[in-house]
Amino acid sequence: MVASTSDGHVLLVKKLGGLISVIIGCLLTAVGVTFESTGTTVVGVLLLALGAVLLTLKIIRRNQKSPLG
Q1: Cα separations (Å) of 3 from 9, 25, 47, 67?
Q2: Alpha-carbon gap, residue 37 to 27, rounded angstroms
Q3: 8 Å CB contact between 23 and 47
Q4: Residue 36 CA, distance from chain mean position
Q5: What is the DSSP letter of 5?
Q6: Domain limits of the chain?
Q7: Residues ≥6 apart with Cβ < 8 Å to 17
Q8: What is the pLDDT of residues 9-34, one digit of tens each?
Q9: Is the CB of residue 45 less than 8 Å from the CB of residue 25?
């Protein structure tokens, strides 16, 4: 369950980048929908998708090195 130290920084960047991307994406999407700004809404949705992909990649990579499998 513990990530190796050689790729620890990469996993931390993916985790924090994913979380920040999801938070900013939610905010931009809400602002875009509220003010009916298509561009802001699209950027928000793209950031949400990017954050979800980064978090998914982090989880997949962590589970590949599971001692049970």
Answers
A1: 10, 27, 26, 11
A2: 13
A3: no
A4: 25
A5: G
A6: 36-63
A7: 51, 54
A8: 777 887 899 999 999 999 999 999 99
A9: yes
